[in-house]
Amino acid sequence: MSWEFLCDLLSGVNKYSTRIGRIWVAIVFMFRLLVYIVATENIWKNEHDEFECNIRQPGCENVCFDHFFPVSHIRLLALQLIMVSTPSLFVVFHVVYQENREKHHNQKLYKSPGEIDGGLLCTYLISLILKTGFEIVFLVLFYKLYNGFKVPRLVKCDIRPCPNTVDCYISKPTEKTIFLYFLVASSCLCIVLNLSELSYLIFKYSIKCYLKRYIKKHQ
């Protein structure tokens, strides 16, 4: 996959974001995307080859690995990054649509970056709700698939074609657990930032509407 496209997408949305939104972009870049590319890919690179069971029964090791790791950590983390960043496309499409519609009027769409109002505000709020929803869904998915966020050293498997209960060992469990905790913590931080930005925009828009009604009433 091309991570450059993801970086360009987030950078383009950044100029229409609030300060909280820019912090979210920085965290996605520095604490998630860069950590994923530099470290996480290497840690989970050979997880199947380094998964060992104390038996040579053909097929037993593959079945046990598939049972305990139904989806690769690294692929699920990549899918999470993609899905969390995808709602930002709505903001990009909305801005492009408005600019194409109004370019013949020589009219500037927004007075300054971060000044979100009207249809763009609705699109931006929807993108925040979707990003928060995807974050929560993937955290729950991680927890359900792997029975928590801790990678065990030893797992016991008794699935056919294994003739009895066998011990299987996972490589670098401590290192994987540390990075998994780090990525989960950064995901939780992104959820807090999204909810904070959502609350801020709703509060700001409510105050703006109230002031308009107040001024109109007294005029």
Automatic annotation (TrEMBL):
TM stretches of this protein: 20-39, 77-97, 118-143, 178-203
Gene3D superfamilies registered for this protein in UniProt: Gap junction channel protein cysteine-rich domain
Annotated membrane topology: Multi-pass membrane protein
Subcellular location: Cell junction, Gap junction; Cell membrane
Domain spans labelled Connexin N-terminal: 42-75
KW ATP-binding (keyword) present: no
Molecular function, one GO term: gap junction channel activity
GO terms of biological process kind: cell-cell signaling
Domain Connexin cysteine-rich: 134-201
One GO cellular component term noted in the UniProt record for this chain: connexin complex
Pfam family, one: Connexin
Keyword vocabulary terms for this entry: Cell junction, Cell membrane, Gap junction, Membrane, Transmembrane, Transmembrane helix
SMART domains: CNX, Connexin_CCC
InterPro entries linked: Connexin, Connexin_CCC, Connexin_CS, Connexin_N, Connexin_N_sf
Subunit-level organization: A connexon is composed of a hexamer of connexins.
Role: One gap junction consists of a cluster of closely packed pairs of transmembrane channels, the connexons, through which materials of low MW diffuse from one cell to a neighboring cell.
Family: Belongs to the connexin family.
Protein name, per record: Gap junction protein
Lineage: Eukaryota, Metazoa, Chordata, Craniata, Vertebrata
Gene designation per UniProt: Gjb7
